[in-house]
UniProtKB/TrEMBL annotation, chains A, B:
InterPro entries to which the protein is assigned, alphabetical: Pept_M19
Molecular-function annotations in GO: metallodipeptidase activity
A biological-process GO annotation: proteolysis
Protein name stated in the entry: Dipeptidase
Pfam families listed in its UniProt record: Peptidase_M19
Domain of life: Bacteria
Length: 323, 323
């Protein structure tokens, strides 16, 4: 079972074919960064066309059983997620509506303060808001996973504590390995995994030690260190692969409609676009190389299987849908 | 199995309790008259609250199997429908989105011309539009039933012919019995039932011979005549019960946002509000009386069972969801 805990590619049949070439059984795909409800539904409509037109390669999944059925049919399961709570606007009733439409992950923040919590680029983090606590309870009820990848430390720890079900950091790396602003400090990881949470290791170059020059050995070594410190069952891959996207898309991710200025996020004026991927992970077809790398740093077969997808599948089984 | 093919009550726990008292196993409820997509979703959110708060009495159904499960659990299944295509706006992709959210019936028109077809109050009926043909094909694909209760004759006949799956007139009566504008002429009924379609007999007083003074014997006699002419398996109940609604709601049904004038629809200036129900059908608790009336006019036990719910259940089984 091979599962990627987050991607946002410029979707096309060649990319779906690469998912099959790489033996991907499931991919959590982002369908919203700053989109409001109606715009998010338009993205779902776009995916419905992909499912109609490329039903030989991909199929929507809402449960772990759907992922296993997709694998059995030789297709890659697609699971919807949002990187911001913008799709629920100010309406808690939209949590269940979006869950019914297949949403299974939702970040409480994307870099900035939201109605629910604080993003990792704010100067101050006052923690969960009143609405944030209510929305987490509603997400717990219906089985929509709280994702804190782009959130600030206090908000993340409070979300892990307030949630009655495990939460996720779908795509980030340990701050101890590479101190990027988006990577997670030890107390944050500890709060998430202590309650059964999951963290997906990111292959987005700004999250990697050495950036685009990061080696497969260094990446897999960081997973080994995390497994030794927190337990192998809490980790997986969340590649953050943004294949074939024009640089206008990274600008949309960073700027949305919240400012009239340019914000470079993890980049800079001289390096504003998508950074080049490391040569050993350029597409879904490279997924088997991650397995090789994990074996090479000394993981046994069971641990490799858990990290490359088994842990995500267990997490889906426990956390998608009502308890 | 007792099924009502259409209601739009002012929903409350007492009404859900009357559904149980009347032994209703399923009710098709209207969630949109003139509402656009986002407003329709708000109505679904409202129903989600009803399902949470009154889950001992009602449960949402998307399939015939869901209806049978509801019956087995001693609850009434609720099936969503729209009386207008306003919820899909001008976007064919919303057909599948709304179906995923549980919509199972959609009228192509509500009295007026729509983007899809012509309503029964227009002076001219040019038949299905270009978009109408496309939307019917999409409704056929996903399993969203075409309902032509408020449509004009030519549009209805063309819809029955163009649709590759049976269509419905969820709530209307034969024009031969009572020549109201909303009741259906023989060639219209013939076109619908010849292709496996269903028609629900309405208990809305303007559709009844004698109006509010119509007798149970006359109503059941009309069902007997229809069964003799077209076959018993094509008919059921679609009561159009609008219990506890203020008259402002019938005004919304008739006027929506399409005019600044008052339109009295089937009423008149002197009789603008909801007409009083006949004394033998004032609430869901009166449903068993309809069975008694059908037996009294001479239907055998199998026919009564078919008319009171079995025919709708068979229709749901064949027409909800992809083929």
């Amino acid at each position: 079972m091979r599962i990627d805990g987050l991607q946002y590619c410029n979707w096309s049949r060649p990319i779906f074919e690469e998912m099959r070439a790489g033996g991907l059984d499931a991919v959590h795909v982002t369908i919203a960064y700053h989109e409001v409800f109606r715009e998010t539904v338009l993205q779902m409509e776009r995916w419905n066309r992909y499912f109609e037109d490329h039903g030989d390669l991909i199929v929507q999944a809402r449960t772990a059983a759907d992922v296993e059925a997709a694998k059995a049919s030789g297709r890659t399961a697609i699971i919807f997620g949002a990187q911001n709570p913008s799709p629920i606007e100010d309406d808690i009733g939209l949590v269940e509506i979006l869950h019914t439409l297949g949403l299974r992950f939702m970040q409480l923040t994307y870099n900035n303060q939201s109605l629910l919590a604080t993003g990792c680029y704010e100067a101050e983090d006052p923690g969960l808001t009143r609405m944030g606590r209510e929305v987490i309870a509603e997400m717990n009820r219906v089985g929509l996973v709280v994702d804190m990848s782009h959130s600030a430390d206090r908000s993340t720890i409070e979300a892990a504590e307030h949630s009655t079900r495990p939460i996720a950091i779908t795509h980030a790396n340990p701050h101890d390995w590479h101190p990027a602003r988006r990577n997670k400090r030890a107390p944050v990881i500890e709060a998430v995994v202590a309650r059964g949470g999951m963290m997906g290791f990111s292959l987005y170059p700004h999250h990697l030690k050495g950036g685009s020059a990061c080696t497969l050995d260094s990446f897999c070594g960081a997973m080994m260190d995390a497994a030794a410190q927190y337990g192998v069952r809490h980790f997986g891959i969340g590649s953050d692969l943004c294949q074939d996207q024009p640089d206008s898309v990274v600008e949309w991710m960073r700027v949305g409609r919240w400012t009239k200025q340019i914000d470079y996020g993890e980049g800079s004026k001289d390096n504003a676009g998508f950074p080049p991927q490391p040569p050993w992970f350029r597409s879904n077809a490279d997924f088997p190389k991650l397995e090789e790398g994990l074996r090479a740093v000394g993981f046994d077969a069971d641990s490799v299987a858990a990290l490359i997808g088994g842990n995500w599948l267990d997490f889906f089984d426990k956390n998608f849908g009502p308890q």
